[in-house]
Design brief:
434 residues, alpha/beta, Polyamine Oxidase, Chain A, domain 2, five-stranded parallel beta sheet, 12 helices, 20 strands, 35% helix, binds flavin-adenine dinucleotide
Length: 434
């Protein structure tokens, strides 16, 4: 195959290009942003090189471990026992452990047992297909009862999915609960981080791609995909138009719609991409001169804040000053998403002060808010049947994080899928050779 373009320089696009290079090809990777990494990209936060969005790794992130090994980065991966909290009724409770759940007296003892049973059941379910046609909220209500559901889950859904809350598939929530449940050693939650953050992986992938002859062009948004009758497509960027025999797009599916439309695709096909619902994220990150809690993750159930949880990165990865993330997931067309960054920062700070009443304004050292328009695909029931075709034209593939449903978006999953996709494309091309 003579020319291959990869659209998108997040973990999946980098993995596709990395694997193609390992197999002796020289792809061109086109990234819209001024940097690589996608959702896992980093920025300079008052001297700290930090992800725009919090990232941790789990004990079952096998594809991630494999690529680290190949890139000589395995010794940069560290693990730590972490704890979880639950902020409810203006009080912080321990959560995420059997003793924490059993001692939570705001729910009947039976509900607490049912909660633990449900977590255990998530580890034994093998066939997720039976959960695919049930909504997550129905499934959780069945396990926990109405009161348990309302107290433990309702706000998490309401503040992540808004009008889509009652449409999310049970298979999707199952895979999330299972992922964390499996990341335990001797029953203790154990999470991982790279010493240099995700940037370390992004840098190593970039170096390997370039070293093996691949080309990376940042600031190169693809504006149009015009399929060619002989296969592949003409890609238009602000720098010009170029034909590729094979195009592999890894950008969020709704972003493929304008590219196809500009390339003259059928409106029906375009709408299969544009109609994919997704939730945006405005993610506040703060530096403080002290910890907020001892937890890595604190779930929040408080009417004053539209915040599902707080992530204290420094309680996982040693970062000083103390770094906390406060994500706001909101559909991008919701009026709240139009608020300016300072409004999100103020809400986040007030929430941290509510969780830790000793916190004073002078303890805050710096703050920042990053936004990602398509941060969380909305995985509804029978999700796969709602996805557009993986290969809308011969030689044009459009994948994003939804392709590995029911798994939630993740670095390891995107790398795994990206690498196997690259191998499949090459095998297919080889089989088609005369
Ligand atoms: C708040 C948050 C927290 C997260 N936490 C974790 C975590 O703890 N652990 C974990 O493993 N994962 C986590 N993730 C998910 C992880 O970051 C993603 O799964 C992963 O980055 C997906 O990679 P991707 O390459 O598939 O997609 P993306 O990262 O979305 O990459 C797509 C790329 O395409 C580019 N692009 C868009 N339009 C164009 C265009 N027209 N032309 C060219 N390029 C274009 C984008 O700029 C981007 O770089 C988190 C994500 C978020 C938002």
């Amino acid at each position: 195959m003579s020319s291959i373009a990869v659209i998108g320089g997040g973990p999946m696009g980098l993995a596709v290009a990395y694997e193609l290079c390992l197999q002796g090809h020289t792809p061109v990777l086109l990234e819209a942003d001024d940097r690589l990494g996608g959702m896992a990209a980093s920025f300079n936060f008052e001297g700290l090189q930090l992800e725009r969005y919090y990232h941790f790794h789990c004990l079952n992130d096998h594809a991630f471990f494999e690529v680290l090994e190949e890139l000589g980065l395995s010794d940069q991966l560290s693990w730590r026992q972490t704890t979880m909290g639950f902020f409810f009724n203006n009080r912080l409770y321990p959560w995420g452990s059997v003793s924490g759940v059993l001692s939570f007296r705001h729910l009947p003892l039976l509900t607490r047992f049912r909660y633990l049973l449900h977590a255990a059941r998530c580890l034994t379910i093998r066939n997720w297909r039976e959960l695919d046609s049930i909504t997550a909220t129905t499934w959780l209500r069945k396990w926990l009862g109405e009161r348990g559901y309302q107290l433990l889950w309702h706000k998490l859904f309401a503040f992540k999915f808004f009008q889509f809350s009652d449409q999310i598939s049970a298979a999707w929530i199952w895979s999330r609960v299972r992922r964390l449940g499996q990341s335990r050693k001797k029953l203790k939650e154990t999470l991982g981080f790279l010493q240099g953050g995700s940037q370390q992986l992004v840098d190593a992938l970039e170096t390997s791609i370039r070293h093996n002859g691949g080309e990376i062009r940042c600031n190169s948004p693809v504006q149009a995909i015009r399929p060619s009758p002989q296969g592949g497509a003409m890609l238009q960027t602000p720098n010009g138009v170029q034909h590729f025999d094979q195009v592999i797009s890894t950008v969020p599916l709704p972003l493929v719609a304008p590219m196809l439309e500009a390339g003259g695709s059928d409106p029906e096909l375009v709408s299969e991409y544009s109609s994919q619902p997704s939730v945006a994220c405005a993610c506040v990150v703060l530096q403080t001169d002290r910890a907020i809690t001892g937890n890595f993750w604190t779930n929040v159930n408080d009417d004053r804040f539209a915040i599902p949880g707080v992530i204290e990165m420094s309680n996982l990865r040693p970062l000083s000053p103390h770094v906390s993330y406060v994500p706001f997931y909101i559909p991008a067309d919701h009026p709240d998403y139009q608020r300016n960054n300072q409004a999100f920062i103020d809400d986040a700070w007030n929430c941290l002060k509510a969780i830790n009443p000793d916190l004073q304004d002078e303890h805050r050292l710096a703050s920042h808010c990053s936004r990602y328009r398509f941060a969380q695909p909305v995985c509804r029931i029978n999700f796969q049947s709602t996805l557009p075709p993986l290969e809308p034209y011969p030689g044009v593939i459009t994948a994003d994080t939804t392709v590995y449903y029911p798994e939630d978006r993740g670095i390891s999953e995107s790398i795994d899928y990206g690498r196997s996709l690259a191998r499949r494309v090459l095998a297919h091309a080889a089989a088609a050779m005369p």
